[in-house]
Amino acid sequence: MPAPDDVSSITWLQVGVDGVLVPRGFAAGQGGGAGDERAQVIWCAAASDLATRFPGLPTSSEPAGGWTTMCTDLVVDLALAAGDWCLAGVSLEGHDLDQVLADMGLVDAAQRADDLLGSPAPKCLRPLTPLLTTLLDEASSPA
Predict the structure, then answer these.
(1) Distance CA 76, CA 85 (A)
(2) What pTM value is reported for the model?
C-alpha cells in the first residue's frame, strides 16, 4: 500500500489536472490502484459532447453505431519507482498524449509530453496542465 505522502502526490496531481479538464467537460478525476506499484487517475467525458466541443481530437469521429453511452477517457498512469510515484503514461482513449499532439502538428508539445515520462508526479503537474490545455485549445476547431 502506498505511503500517505505518495497518495497525496497523486491526489495533488489529480486536483491540478481537474482544474484543466473539468471546465472543459470532463468529470473530476477518479483514482485507483492497479497494484502496489501502479496507479491511475481517469477523467471521463461524454464522447458526443467532447466531440462537439473539441472536433480536432482523434476521438471526435462518431462511431458507425452512433455515440450511445460512450465516454472518452483521459488516463494518467503512474508507477512507483525509487519510492516516488512517477508518470508512466498519459493517454486519450488509448492514444498516447505525445502521439496525439504530434498527429495534430504540435511537435514541440509532443516532445515535452514524451519528456515527462518517468518524472515524479509532483514535478509533472506544472508542465502537464499546459500540455493538456494546448491539446484541447488546438482541438476546439475542426482538424
Answers:
(1) 12
(2) 0.87
